């Protein structure tokens, strides 16, 4: 596939942005100023200020002398980069690869994208018209190289350069179109080289000796003899599907149709590679520049379209299309291998290994929250708080078996809570205990079960646990910390509840 790059040039980036924020400034000359070596200089000038002869780089005092009514605003050092970054992220609706080109431009890798808008002419027209409608004065060009696109956008007339036409497009342009340092441009001017055609055919050794290696590098990049990498604003997800819309979509039904189409493309590719989705994100780019997004998660890797669609369907109601959505982007942000055994479980026995069970858990967790459902696995630890862990997925296998030699509650508190106990001594269970203000009278009890701390992890008292049943049939897991002592009034704790 032939590489195609779009260069976008913002003639008055900062002043256009200021007019968008403060419409009263339209038609009024104003500038941004900054301090350079203890001198206040004009950093950016509005079109109306330039019509009075005020340009970036001149002293602010001279600008005020030319136009005493000139409005002046302070320049912020990171404003250009932040503006270009924000606009570049908006341009991701036209291509997955957009890069900032300081101080006043963007570079888009449009390879394989233009046909979605009916060709390069319509593609370029769509981008520039949308930016101009937003209030920015822009020019753009498309070619096979970044250098030629940059040059033609700023100095050329023909904005679409056919593959292989880079050299011809550069010939009539000034040397500044090659993005050269000012010192090189001055030397070229002194020798009378006012067009690239005046020197581009000269022997490389002559150009290198007189103007340095940068000139040769820029020529090579522009004509396509040397690759010029760009740094994208966002790293492209390995598994991603895009769906641009010719007309903005506003209804829930249309959004669901778009999601289903995206899932078919994504799942077909993942299935062919033996992979499945664990987490996926849907981004909806609205025509007003806002981005709506929703995420889903699965308990095990899946490339089952119907199942993933049901999970996204639960989230559709949270998407606010406003004036319409013109681009959908589906990213698989976490993927895992799908085992062949899983494929055979569609008609398998009930249990966690059954695919229908995992799908049910996915729907519940995506509806009420992923923190509402947990699966626990045993851990080889004596201390109850450390004897289990949360499983990362339904496919994770336990490293040891659950203990069944002693009774364990179905609910264990994260931290044992102190209780007030009336108990004979030294090793008898409590006759009654008070927990959160309520008094519980013991009818049956079993114990004690002594659990020692792991001495290689931490030091501390042992625990003597009792299974206690009150007169209402409720069963609790209580323990006394350490040996009985008359000096310690708070030795008893509640740690869990039985079914």
From TrEMBL:
Limits of the UmuC domain: 18-149
The UniProt keywords, alphabetically, are: DNA damage
* Family annotation (InterPro entries): DNA/RNA_pol_sf (IPR043502), Rev_trsase/Diguanyl_cyclase (IPR043128), SulA_CellDiv_inhibitor (IPR050356), UmuC (IPR001126)
A Gene Ontology biological process annotation? DNA repair
* PANTHER family reported in the protein's UniProt record: BLR3025 PROTEIN (PTHR35369:SF2), BLR3025 PROTEIN-RELATED (PTHR35369)
Q: Which family would the database say this protein is a member of?
A: Belongs to the DNA polymerase type-Y family.
- Protein name per UniProt: Protein ImuB
């Amino acid at each position: 596939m032939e590489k195609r790059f779009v260069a976008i040039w913002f003639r008055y980036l900062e002043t256009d942005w200021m007019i968008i924020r403060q419409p009263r400034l339209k038609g009024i000359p104003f500038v941004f100023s900054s301090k350079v070596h203890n001198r206040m200089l004009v950093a950016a000038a509005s079109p109306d200020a330039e019509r009075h002869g005020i340009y970036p780089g001149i002293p602010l005092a001279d600008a005020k002398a030319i136009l005493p009514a000139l409005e002046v605003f302070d320049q912020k050092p990171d404003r250009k980069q932040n503006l270009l970054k924000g606009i570049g992220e908006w341009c991701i609706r036209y291509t997955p690869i957009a890069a900032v080109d300081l101080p006043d431009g963007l570079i888009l890798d449009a390879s394989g994208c233009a046909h979605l808008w009916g060709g390069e002419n319509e593609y370029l027209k769509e981008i520039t018209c949308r930016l101009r409608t937003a209030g920015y004065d822009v020019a753009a060009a498309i070619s096979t190289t970044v250098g030629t696109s940059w040059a033609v956008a700023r100095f050329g007339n023909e904005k679409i350069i056919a593959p292989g036409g880079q050299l011809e497009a550069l010939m009539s342009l000034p040397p500044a179109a090659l993005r050269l340092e000012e010192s090189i441009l001055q030397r070229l001017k002194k020798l009378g080289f006012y067009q690239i055609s005046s020197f581009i055919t000269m022997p490389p050794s002559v150009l290198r000796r007189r103007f340095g290696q940068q000139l040769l590098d820029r020529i090579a990049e522009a004509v396509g003899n040397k690759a010029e990498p760009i740094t994208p604003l966002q790293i492209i997800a390995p598994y991603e599907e895009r769906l641009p819309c010719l007309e903005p979509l506003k209804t829930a039904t249309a959004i669901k149709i778009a999601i289903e189409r995206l899932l078919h493309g994504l799942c077909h590719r993942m299935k062919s590679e033996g992979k499945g989705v664990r987490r996926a994100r849907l981004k909806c780019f609205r025509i007003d520049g806002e981005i709506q997004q929703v995420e889903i998660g699965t308990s095990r890797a899946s490339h089952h379209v119907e199942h993933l669609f049901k999970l996204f369907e639960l989230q559709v109601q949270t998407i606010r299309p406003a004036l319409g959505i013109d681009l959908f982007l589906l990213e698989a942000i976490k993927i895992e291998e799908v085992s062949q055994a899983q494929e055979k479980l569609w008609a398998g026995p009930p249990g966690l290994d059954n695919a229908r069970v995992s799908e049910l858990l996915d729907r519940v967790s995506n509806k009420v929250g992923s923190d509402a459902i947990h699966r626990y696995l045993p851990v080889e630890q004596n201390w109850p708080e450390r004897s289990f862990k949360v499983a990362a997925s339904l496919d994770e296998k336990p490293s040891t078996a659950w203990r069944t030699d002693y009774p364990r509650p179905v609910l264990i508190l994260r931290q044992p809570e102190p209780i007030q106990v009336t108990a004979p001594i030294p090793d008898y269970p409590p006759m009654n205990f008070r927990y959160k203000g309520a008094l519980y009278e013991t009818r049956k009890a079993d114990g004690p079960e002594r659990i020692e701390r792991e001495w290689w992890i931490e030091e501390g008292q042992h625990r003597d646990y009792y299974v206690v049943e009150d007169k209402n049939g409720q069963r609790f897991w209580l323990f006394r910390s350490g040996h009985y002592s008359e000096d310690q009034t708070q030795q008893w704790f509640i740690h869990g509840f039985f079914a």
